[in-house]
Amino acid sequence: LCRELSDLETQNEQMLAQMKQLEQEEKSCQELLERYDFTEWEITEWSEQQAVFNFLYDSIELTVVFGPPIDGDVFGEDPSRKIVCLNFESLLDEEKAPPSSCLVQRLIFQFIESQGCWQEKCPTLYHLPQVLRDVSLVVSRCKILGEEVEFLERWGGKFNLLKTDINDTKVKLLFSASTAFAKFELTLSLSANYPSASLPFTVQKQIGNIGEEEISAVLSNVPIGDHYLRRIVSFIHQNLLQDPR
């Protein structure tokens, strides 16, 4: 009996230790979810036939068409229920929207189109949450990029940035600084995987000697990651356009 009690106590201690570890892991996961909250979608319809989700201030709409409900599935939410169609549609009025919003929209749809057939990626309801997460992540990154462009359009003068222009998925940055006797245009090619990869660029000299070689040397020291575009502008300003004294 004593041995059985001892074994039970040992088992209880092990269970308590496991519960403590699970609680700690749950806390860590919760903190991670709060830090990286990529839930960028809102559900606007869920009927027997379809579900409709909106992203990015209702400027992108995803319509998911369901197959027939499975027997016994009263609410039509059985994870194995088939999805017969997924369709993304832009609701952005590009004629009225600011250039930064149009850029963000193009990059998101660049990602959407690059994935091929979405119905193959999401054949059943079980796969839908992953699709919503994948799209949310790209929307979140591109939305932050749009905010960076708006920041540069408003405050670029502090970084010797004369003009910010958007052409399709390229951002043209015109720098000018009398102290460095330099004026040049830097064109950065953006993609939907921003900011997880370095940006291809070209430089057009207008005044002075700052060209592709000098810009390349500076950009090689800018690590990819959050606010990559803003940091590129800041690094160019600090390293090439400040008074050398």
From TrEMBL:
One of its GO terms (cellular component) is nucleus. Keywords: Coiled coil. Pfam families: Knl1_RWD_C. CDD domains: DRWD-C_Knl1, DRWD-N_Knl1. Residues 5-42 form a coiled coil. GO terms for biological process: attachment of spindle microtubules to kinetochore; protein localization to kinetochore. InterPro entries: Blinkin, Knl1_RWD_C. Residues 3-146 form the Knl1 C-terminal RWD domain. This is KNL1 protein. The gene is Knl1_0.
